[in-house]
């Protein structure tokens, strides 16, 4: 079955950077469009970014466009999210997912951005 394991979260000050990773297993990773979604305290899941199977095409929510970069390494079944110029509003649990709604996702990694 699909297994997704996120890592790389932490606590940073506003303006800082983090790199999230997601290791996929139990499914043909290279054939799946992959997603990052997040859930801020007290809010629902929010789509963040999408990458196509070959990593050529990417899409971002307006709130992260220009600051975050999604990428993938199909040889190692790994998805990444490089987050720069972090803002306090980026504080959330970040999940990688196999669908935009996040219904199939990992356990998440906490990102906390302080002012």
Structure description:
The protein is mainly β and about 120 residues long. About 0% of the residues lie in helices and about 50% in strands. The chain has no helices and 10 strands. The strands form 2 sheets. Strands 2-10-9-4-5-6 form a 6-stranded mixed beta sheet, with no helix packed on it. The termini are far apart. The model has no long low-confidence stretch (mean pLDDT about 100).
List descriptors:
single chain; 115 residues; mainly beta; six-stranded mixed beta sheet; four-stranded antiparallel beta sheet
What order do the helices and strands come in, and which of them pair?
Layout: E1 3-7, E2 10-13, E3 18-25, E4 34-39, E5 45-51, E6 58-60, E7 68-73, E8 78-83, E9 92-97, E10 109-114
Parallel strand pairs: 2-10
Antiparallel strand pairs: 1-3, 3-8, 4-5, 4-9, 5-6, 7-8, 9-10
In short:
This protein has 115 residues and is mainly β. The chain is 0% helix and 50% strand.
Q: What general outline do the C-alpha atoms trace? A: globular
What is the rounded Rg? 13 Å
Profile the largest sheet: 6 strands, mixed
Approximately how much beta-strand content do the residues carry?
over 45%
Structural class: mainly beta
């Amino acid at each position: 079955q699909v297994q997704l394991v996120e890592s790389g979260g932490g606590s940073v000050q506003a303006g800082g950077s983090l790199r999230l990773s997601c290791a996929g297993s139990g499914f043909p990773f290279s054939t799946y469009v992959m997603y990052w979604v997040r859930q801020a305290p007290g809010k629902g899941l929010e789509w963040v970014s999408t990458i196509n199977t070959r990593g050529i095409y990417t899409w971002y929510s307006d709130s992260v466009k220009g600051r975050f970069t999604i990428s993938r390494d199909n040889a190692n079944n790994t998805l990444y999210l490089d987050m720069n110029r972090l803002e306090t509003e980026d504080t959330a649990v970040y999940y990688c997912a196999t669908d935009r709604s996040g219904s199939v996702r990992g356990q998440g990694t906490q990102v906390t951005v302080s002012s």
